Amino acid sequence: MKLIDKDTVKHIAKLSRLSLAEEEVELYSKQLGDILLYISKLNQLNTDDVEPMSHVLPCLVNVERPDAPAVSFSTEQALANAPEKDGDFFRIPKVIEAK
Amino acid sequence: MTAHELREKLAKNQTSAGEVLGGILERIKKIEPKINAYARVSEGAAVKAAASVRTDGAAGALAGIPVAVKDNICVNGEETTCASRILKGFRPPYDATVVKRLKDAGAVLLGKTNMDEFAFGSSCETSCYGSTRNPHDTSRIPGGSSGGSAAAVAAGTAVIAIGSDTGGSIRQPAAMCGVVGLKPTYGRVARYGLIAFASSLDQIGPITRDVEDSALALNVIA
Fold this sequence. Notes:
heterodimer, A: mainly alpha, B: 7 helices, 6 strands, globular
């Protein structure tokens, strides 16, 4: 049984917007599985006495600017890189379907 | 020449920011076709910056020093693409914190250096601008993903270059190009304006000719 079967590869390819040939699906199925197998070596570690953490360095503190209102972008600046706009709005492909 | 050596010459008025820049731009025209370290050279902006470099007591720590910046770091109004066609034409409306600090310190920004696309690589072969070559042997890779930055410093087409390191992307190309690369301790340098790869690992850092320049650069960007 493959760790990552061909259907999973095809699904991942679709999400990544990649088109794969049949031989590539076969190849990546094996390679992705091998990678997962390699990473699963980490399970050999005994972590019973290790506190869950979000980062190894315990002393990290976010550096923030003061929460004071300041001049930000003009509408023009904010929309400058928009591939499509509609008045003061970004125009994008529909991502929410009405039921 | 190193940044600290240039600083001395500039302070003694033995050269000017414009002259230093002129020399670098000439070198870029001569060598870049063989090395391809740059995604984009911003000659116009650099000339303007060199002209407004202060030489008085208020001169910044990097006043007049030509610096190149990796193409995954945002420079206000200048194309930033991470060496990818996906971001072609993207002009950030703001400067990364690192870039702002470099500008405030009087650095003359030369342009954006080549890299592996979105930093997903260790050889600088995956860029949409083509591979960067190792200046010591152009049949070899410069390393990556900050290959352009390392090659530029090694080839003398930048005095200091800024790169980013997630899993070795400053240190490895610096080693391959025979220059000094530093990955600062995580959290030391702001990531604001760095297009992310792995946010809990990414750090921006300097690539320089020697360790003294590395310290000089880190003091400015950290």
